[in-house]
Structure formats: structure tokens, C-alpha cells
Amino acid sequence: MIRALGVIALLALPLYSAAETSPPPPELVLVSEHPVEGIPGGNLSGLAWCGDGLQAVSDRDDHHLYRLDMREAVWQAEAERLEPPPVPDSGLPWGLRMRTLAISPLRGGSLDFEGLSCDALGNRYLLSEGHAAVLRVSATGDAQWLDLPRSLLRQARASGMMLKYNALYEGIAVDPKGERLWLAAERERRGLLVVHRNGARWRCTGGCVLLSEGGMVHSPVREEERWVSKDFTALAWFDNKLFTLERAAHQLCRRNPANGEVERCWSFAATAGEADRRYAQGDGHAEALWVDADGVWVGLDNNFLPRGDGDARPIIWRFAAPRGGWGARR
């Protein structure tokens, strides 16, 4: 038995060494940063370029979308009123639903919007973590919950995702035609799911789950040794690729939208780890993402916690696209 264990250890050693010595992802170059005023509690939890500018959501506000006035270095959030209809039953178990309702008076609502995406027609898609549901808001402001298949949540939970409170859906992306919708489960386990539109309804085609994985990652901006759970905190769709924001690793990755496989990653750890920009509480606050041909927007949900320079406002970073563009292999 001991001899067999020794052989297994020797066989595993080259794989471990290769993982430890693999080069880190290339660093993105920071172009600008923009504090945002006017979002309650500093809770900027989703970003999307809709029409002619950036829009945002807050996970502490059930009744507003925010349009960002980008004309000055400090951006002002301008509220657009939302009137969501009653939330449909997504199939979340009783215990998770009750925890959401119990905490909602302290959070400012129960919807807990954690993601935002837009299609080419100007529809906004708001992801409710609290109810595992998606609210579509038209360009004229009409709001309707999507009729998602009940099998979506069942398959996610059967794959080990969506089992813990505050570790449910955290990211959303829609293709320009509004025909495919991707959702990201946050952590413990994290994963990617997809549904396809069939008229007014949505369905799983060949299964909803693209990826489900656990594991830990070393936080690259902590001075002490620190391992945290792998996570997804936002999704974006660009140039027929899916991009994931991975807060714990301080990186974003390009992935195959058909199976969730990672193709290339880029880091923003150097920016997040600078003394003036580092937050003492937690390992990172990057929760919002939007990718375009020229670069990427990364939004920080800081909950009014101050960073190293004392700024307690939510921050949006603009990074330049990598040399060769987002489709480059190396």
C-alpha cells in the first residue's frame, strides 16, 4: 500500500511542478480610472454598454438602473426607475428563499441584482441572484421576467452549484440577437450555464451546464499567503467569445462559449495590488465587466469601504486591449 502511494505521488509530481511553474497571464495596461457618485452604498455590481453609453446596476437597489455620465473624470450615476413585476418561482429551495427575504430589509431589497447585459435592440438583462431570475427591461422601460426552464436550476444544483446562500448566479451575458443567454454561478462550485431562446420561452439544448469546477486559487495581491475559492463575478460577450471576470485571481479570461473552456487570460493584479488602490478588507471587489474592441471596463463593488488612498466610492477601471486584440493566441 505504501509503495503504491509512493508511485502515485511520483506520477503526480511532474503535473504539480508544471502547474507551479506555468507563466502568469500577461498584465493589462491601465488607461484611466473613474470614481462613481450617485450609486447607493457604493454597490456597483454590473456594467454594460447599452446604446450610446455605460449603464450599471446595484445589488442594493431593486428599483433603479443607472446611466453613467462619462463626461468628467468623476462619473455621475443617473437613476432610471424600474418597476419589476412579481418574481416567478425559479425553484430555489425554501431555505435559500427565506434567507433572502430575511436579509432584504438590510440590503434595500430582495432582488440582489448582480449582473447586466444588453442585446442589439437595446433590451437590458438584469440578473437577480436573490431569486435566480433574469429581468428583461426594454429600451422604453417595460420590465418582464424571462421564462427560464426549471431544469436550469436543477441541472446547476445537480452539478454542485447554487447550493449556498450568497453564492448563486453572479454573471450574465447575452448575444446581440438575444437568442443565447449565459449565466455564471459564483463559487463553491463555480460554473457556466447557457439557455437558448425559443420564441418567448427559453430552453436547454443538449444540457444547460457548460462548466462546473471547484478548487482554490492563490490571491496575487495579498502580501501574506492566502488561498481563496475560485470564482466568477461577471460575464461579457464580445466577438463571438465569452469573457469571465475572476475576482479571486484578479484576471479576466476568454472562453469558448460552446463548452466554457478557457483559451486565454489577462491579469489586472498589478493595478489592484498597488498600495493606493488596494483594499484592506477582502481579496478583491471586481464585480462588473464589459469588453469592446479597444479595451475592457472593470467595475469595483466596494460597499463604501475605503482603499489605500482613502477613496470610498465605487471605481471603474479602463484597461487597453492587449496587443493583437482579444482574439490573439499569444
From TrEMBL:
Residues 42-192 form the Phytase-like domain. Keywords: Signal. Pfam families: Phytase-like. Residues 1-19 form the signal peptide. The keyword Nucleotidyltransferase does not apply. InterPro entries: Phytase-like_dom (IPR027372). This is Esterase-like activity of phytase family protein.
